[in-house]
Amino acid sequence: MTEIERHSFDVLVVGAGGAGLRAAIAAHDAGARVGIVCKSLLGKAHTVMAEGGIAAAMGNVWQEDNWKVHFRDTMRGGKMLNHWRMAQLHAQEAPDRVRELEEWGALFDRTPDGLISQRDFGGHRYARLAHVGDRTGLELIRTLQQRAVALGIDVFMECTVTELVKDGDTATSTDKRVSAGGRIAGAFGYWRESGRFVLFEAPSVVLATGGIGKSYKVTSNSWEYTGDGHALALQSGASLVNMEFVQFHPTGMVWPPSVKGILVTESVRGDGGVLRNSEGRRFMFDYIPEFFKAETADSEDEADRWYEDKTNNRRPPELLPRDEVARAINAEVKAGRGSPHGGVFLDIASRRTPEYIRRRLPSMYHQFKELADVDITAEPMEVGPTCHYVMGGVAVDPDTGESAVPGLYAAGEVAGGMHGANRLGGNSLSDLLVFGRRTGLNAAYAAARLATRPSIDDDVVRAASERALAPFGIEGGENPYGVQQDLQEVMHNLVGIIRREDEMRQALDDLTKFKERIGRLSVEGHRQYNPGWHLAIDLHNMLLVSECIARAALERTESRGGHTRDDFPATDDAWGRLNLHCRLDGDDVAVTREPLPEMPDELRELFG
Amino acid sequence: MGYDLDMKVWRGDASGGELVDFTVEVEEGEVVLDALHRIQATQAGDLAVRWNCKAGKCGSCSTEINGKPRLACMTRLSTFEEGETVTVTPLRAFPVVRDLVTDVSYNYKVAEKVPPFAPEPRPADGAYRMQQVDVERGQEFRKCIECFLCQTVCHVIRDHEENKPSFAGPRFFLRYAELEMHPLDTNDRRELAREQAGIGLCNITKCCTEVCPEGIKITDNAIIPMKERVADRSYDPVTWLGRKIFRRDQLPDAQVPRTPGD
Ligand code: SF4
Ligand code: SF4
Ligand code: FES
User: Fold this and answer.
1) Is A604 marked active-site?
2) What residue's CA is closest to ligand 1, atom 3?
3) Which of A315, A322, A437, A565 is catalytic?
4) Chains A and B: how many Cβ contacts under 8 Å?
5) Order of strands, edge to edge, in the sheet holding A5-8?
6) What Å distances lie between residue A402 and A238, A399, A406, A439, B70, CA to CA?
7) What proportion of chain A, given as a percentage, has pLDDT over 90?
8) What percent of chain B has pLDDT over 70?
9) Residue A321: pLDDT above 90?
10) Which residues form a coiled coil (chain A) (predicted)?
11) Architecture of domain A248-388
């Protein structure tokens, strides 16, 4: 084992999307030696797909806006299941994080006064999203990427982490991946390009691996989204919180089939677009829930006036939080009032001028033109729900981002708690900036405080290599692509937007069978840049997070946010006081109920 | 309505390779990347190809399709004649790693050499002020998805490996121009653009602009103005100084934070 490539850092960041890059920059600024490992090339992470903007109560457009309003919107959007402290820090610190990006070269759209412009988005009381047309995520990632490069941070591109290693870990059997040791000691992985293994020694590891969307058939997520960080955390002994809450973005493309699931930004609605069914009706007026009645327009006239005069009118129902809109679309399609390809119509063509649309939504214009032959300035788009984001993730300390495992941190989508049962649009980019920075700083401080470095046993490394190479040793086994497709089918059909007990039990039975199947995967070819092999490894993570989602979803017998039960359609106050945590117990996922953290009175008053 | 598509896909590694024939079933509305994925899933599980977003936003899936540098996820099969064979090969300007994946590290090395953005200090109230018209130029350049198609097509490096150390390529001329035109940047990058990035080697063939999937006018809006500024700098610094001051003077005074001595 002496020949394995080794690197040593104070802080290792896994993932180079917004959260990972921001964490690495913070750790560097705190004096740590930092390495970033990412599965793709630098600058390709899923953050580039974020379109709408970064939510931050800067008050540039509406002076009435402040962190308390943002905090309240976030908690209400999350159906009060958010960790209040995360939502508070997020709302308080987001404006500084946005201004900082500008200092690093980001070019946001401006107000007439020359300030950073802010746009309307679902669930946000005021126009609050700092943006760059409809490609804000690209701007964010490029800015952070360029900053990280300028600081000289080491980046290991196209390198995948398969296991975390802890101090005192010993090599056990090859099929047990649950780690028993103490503090995090590092991470083991392989170079995609050569297939060779590499070991990173680091007393602090920040997970910033994003989400789990690839477990679903229709998703806006890329191949990288296989729940790696979620699985790594579980295997190290951390818990995942809120895993039953999966966000289906209401508007994904539905046609042609090859683009099904690709995101259509919420800005289309923020900028005046409306949803209609096959009868031409603006159906969202029929789906305004009691919880949001007081702040939602009940006539088309009022809704249309709101774009100009937000003080005297209430918001259009198209801008309700995403879970509400996704469910409404689902119901319309089920009732037979869908569009030809099984979605509904999103119409901005009849409401705004072509010039306005092209200026405000250039990527959407381009995307529909190129991929679907649809001119969105002249005709409506067809859209339907697509798996977009997982609210659930690693349970962390709100202030530091540290998980229950000493030295293991998580930030961004892979962390849980911040968004509760449903995330508001725009709160993801701000989340990854705020908590990316916090975890990076704290990971660096913790590493600096250590008197002795944790060590890694050679046998542990050998066992990890054997596990990674297993699929090459199996002849005539299952095709990983086929297994992935079947898994996506199961999750889509049985643990999708609308859930039922019998279906989820069926899903869990199926998932048990998948456990055998992924033990028999075989791959062709050799170790050099072999996507079949990479998928075979990722499938273990996908399966593990799928089980967490299914088990937590079965346990929560109510409907709330991104979790809708056909058999328990009502929201239940008793469940409103509980979070579900998933932990690994041997080979199985165990779910426990834990009380929600208690919100202090001065914040509770905001909901009076 | 599915049909069978004939494809030739280059397979091999640094030591050599060949075009391999595949016949793959495809559907209406699909793109080249869909066909490649189906080959992966059903015929060659180890076929190496990069991709991420499948929506033309990340710039990962750059290949050469029937000899033209393109994004595989944005090249619709309907753009080919019926019965036409679709040939997919790796980007020519970069060394092959495996199959359609090339070693694009050259671009990342060039990126490291660009001196970072160096803004003026913040005004007292903490908020930089810039007008929309002044950021729009830079915004056009920042649409770049780093697909490196412009890099692979540029003849200065496409057929001349030896030029790489002294030539940054169109994507990075864009970056120099973006920073040079940034309303808040204080660095003067013109000398660098000439000496280090080799902007003088570009003879304005515009091939880069033609392949850019983001439709960025690389030559007209970035390279030519940069060349002019570089020329100003080399021969007539006073002209440049005048221009820089003039540009800032277009903003109302209160909005132009100045450093002492500026
Ligand atoms: S215009 Fe210049 S940079 Fe662009 S392809 Fe031609 S020579 Fe290369
Ligand atoms: S400038 Fe255009 S062609 Fe060149 S890398 Fe950027 S997006 Fe690609
Ligand atoms: S996969 Fe992202 S541009 Fe093609």
Assistant:
1) no
2) B170
3) A322
4) 171
5) A5-8, A197-201, A184-191, A159-166
6) 10, 8, 7, 7, 43
7) 85
8) 88
9) no
10) none
11) Alpha-Beta Complex (3.90)
